[in-house]
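HUMAN:
Could you generate one sequence with tokenized structure?
ASSISTANT:
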Amino acid sequence: MERIVHELRLSETITPFGVGAIVDVLGESLIAPDTSWWNRKYTPEISCDRLLSRLGPGVLRQPPAHAGRAARETAYLLYWRFPAWRFCEQCTKLSQITNRNKGRWVNRCECGGKLVPMRYVATCAKGSHIQDIPWFKWAHRGHSTDVTDSVRFCRAYTELRFTRSSRHGEGLASLNIHCTGCKRTRPLSELVGSESLHRDGIRCNGTQPWQDPTRETACEHKLTAVQRGATGNYISEQHSALDIPEEVPRSAELANKIRSHVYFEKVVADNGGPQAEMVAGWIAEEVGTTATEVLAMASGGNQVEDDTVLDLKDGEWAAFLKKLEHGRDDSGGNFVVDGWSISDESTWPRALTRALTSFGQVRRVREVRALKGFRRHDGDADLIKADLGPDGNRRPIYPAIEMFGEGIFIRFNEETLSEWERTPEVVGRAAILEDRRASIQWASRLPKPEPRFVALHTVAHFLIRRLAFASGYSSASLQERVYAHSDRPDRTAGILIYTAAGDAQGTLGGLVRLGHPDKLLPLLMAALGDADVCSNDPVCIESDRQGSSALNLSACHGCALISETSCETGNRLLDRQLVLGGGSVPGLFDRLLEEVRA
């Protein structure tokens, strides 16, 4: 078959055109197979121990890429044609295979018309499988009175037509699959029900389109007919890590000191007795903590939940704090940050200086992004690994890219933030999102929507929207990374806004120059001023149910939403009220605009 030559950006091979994704290219519908099909000769290995240690055993490899014009031996990325069923625009005939022309396979009908992929495919409800709809079998099934013996036993396998009828309007009822052999016509309106394919006896093969179905791979879950371009057909699971010197969080460093103390075993052995309290006091005095902390550690407390993303962020947060303490950064490498502090004696508004502590101009940062796998139909379905080959369980290959860029880091004041998030009105407002997240099974993969996370996440969106006008980068080019968790041993309160390019050796400095306090603080105040008025107010500011699965409160496209590829949570867990205030809810910056305007 003739090759389809089409260029992709390197970053697009992770998302949205990564392993398992359906891609429309030059009128063709294609799907990317797993990494076991890659030619390893053209897939250089990427080094990022921080990310790989969290993903598990395996290797990070960059998808095949090249620079310049394509030739016969040029590295390329393999895609399969899917769905295999197509119809001719000219004669409306359905076909599942291509034709030969002078010994070469071509994707054209016998009449010379162009073949168009069928718009519907079948996805598995829970197994994340996808397959062609067997159109001949489906066209001759059903429970209507016209399903006679001549229809059931029809053998006119090459006589299907995809027809349109204006008598039934413009919906699916007007689109039909017609068999010229038995004269059966079945509308597509009978295809899209959740139980339609199951009632017709069509079962899941338990495979992906590039795999051969066998008796062992059969899946017990039901199939659902969906449009091949539907968003739910491909839900990727990615992880990214900044290539920074791995720093030990302060809580882990303190825990190591306590556990390595010569008297710690006595505290453990006494198991909460009077001697344990006395010895714990000696240890606490020497290492600079409290006796309660020592006793909690001896009893097995302070265990951190195993979370890949939070584990990565703990190390990054510790590294940023170390950089901010040293001011100007003259070091080399892939992680260069100049630190700036803000004092209470500055001329900036008091409401602003109370909430912020320091800033970082991230002059150079390297990010490695990897695709772990994907799901189909909904976020509850099984995860399909990116490597389905024989080595997929022992040493899988994760598609990965490395990106170099720049950014701005903002650290918030922990005391101010802790005081604000204990306010009953603030707790109640955030509890709305927490309850909804708990009621949606797939939403458990989203961060916990505690007040500090929702507020800092929303501030990051405000700032990205404003930086799109001042930095020279579009909002889709900017990324966020939110460090806001109060239930970790080391409380975090900061945001990183950065840009990175996967097919260039860096960026142009338009963002990092805005990280100086003299430029960043006015931008932050302007961003908050922009968000204070939304074109959808008062509906937006008074709302508590917006966005996907109602996982936003007061946030819409007119004030807070940005490109979904720029957001860690896909434009979810946002609320203007927790930032700017509204009703009885005090916002983190609710007094700032009043002070500026006064």
Summary: The longest helix spans residues 451-470. The chain is about 25% helix and 20% strand. Confidence is low (pLDDT under 50) at residues 302-306.
